[in-house]
Amino acid sequence: MKNDLCSLVPLAVCLLWVCESGQAEIPTFAPRVALKAGPNPHAVIAADLDADGDLDLAASSFAPGFNLAVLRNNGDGTFEDAVLYASGGVSAASIDAGDLDGDLDLDLVVVNWESISLATLENNGNATFQPAIVQPILPPGYYPFDVTCADLSGDDIPDVAMARFDMTGSQGRITIFTNLGDGALLLTGEYTADTAPWRIASVDIDGDTDLDALTANTNHTVSVFENNGAGSVSAITSYPVGNGPRDALGADLDGDGDVDLVSANQGGQSASVLMKGGDPGFPPPVHYAAGIMPESVAAADLDLDGDMDLIIGDSYASDSISILENLGDGTFQLPLRIQVEGYLISVAAATLDEDVDFDIVVASLDADSIYILENLLCEAARGDVNSSGTITSSDIIYLVNHVFKAGPEPACNGASGDLECSGAITASDIIYLVNYVFKGGPDPC
Known about the structure:
Elements lengths: L10 H5 L17 E3 L5 E7 L8 E6 L6 E4 L11 E3 L6 E7 L8 E6 L4 E5 L11 E4 L6 E8 L8 E7 L6 E8 L5 E9 L3 E7 L8 E6 L3 E7 L5 E8 L4 E7 L8 E6 L4 E5 L11 E4 L4 E7 L8 E6 L5 E5 L11 E4 L4 E7 L8 E6 L4 E5 L19 H13 L21 H13 L6
Antiparallel strand pairs: 1-28, 2-3, 3-4, 4-5, 6-7, 7-8, 8-9, 10-11, 11-12, 12-13, 14-15, 15-16, 16-17, 18-19, 19-20, 20-21, 22-23, 23-24, 24-25, 26-27, 27-28
Helix pairs in contact: 2-3
């Protein structure tokens, strides 16, 4: 038996936790729901693959043969059975999605670890996919472990970057493929990384409007690969974090408009937070307890209080995720642990059902499952500002009173009234809601 509270008391009791006075309440999550996505899922993403307005799931696996799974959302946070595809290689380590060919649907990008190859699968427009197009990644000897699909060259077309390392873990690099505009990918950059870069993310770290690359490296650092604006790296800077980082992300944690950094440190049993200040670069990190041997990290406003909380997935021993509530200034509460199952190698946060809060998705490597944890903080949909269960003219009146007469806040800490997902509730949200209710306008974001 595991010596943690979640193994000793019922789940509903374990998950109910209220912050100190003045802080928002960490939400309660429904019991986990297991989805089968083939054996040994290694990475999971949430993306609208069939263009119906809700988020579907895609997962990659180290299993042989059909090692990619696509699970279509039914619109309410439940999912159809997985449809399996082959990545065209061995050990599909990571997956991402982007409109590579400009036809307004999201294609899949996969890196195959053992066969050292890159695969793309063209979307037919309905979340079914053409067979994988595979190309080798040169030079050989550097195994791709993670991939990100993002517009690195500033032409509004997604490119591809990946983290690779040799079998000794002593040498690593990131590799950039530029999209030629029709989905064809051309290798255009190879850059030396610190030892083994375990994960890679794309985010505008320096605030110059182009996307930089961020890696988590096994030599206890994270590295920022600064984009020159055209998809090439102009500078590489590494920052110390905790012991053995396995994942990293960039997000505005303190609401000051710039990007801060977070790493999940397997060896250090911690999350390291580097807060961007007024000077170039980042100061030394602040370390937070984050479960047992953390493997993955995601950020989302789980409690709808306007700041980004952290979700950490554990690798060995604990079978749990840890939630670190943001106190609003980029500092964090002690972790809340939620029991899941297995080696939690990949974690993501996304709104999977019809409400406005963020649910949690976890890939469990040895449990052969994708787990969904539904956030029960708020059941109102975006636009249902009075939380009646439907969107009608009464919601328009409610929103007008809030915007112009200081009336009550819309449901879900105001999130239900932000129909454009701008981060603020303004008169434009009223206009949007009027168009939706009376003129058949587009659905809220």
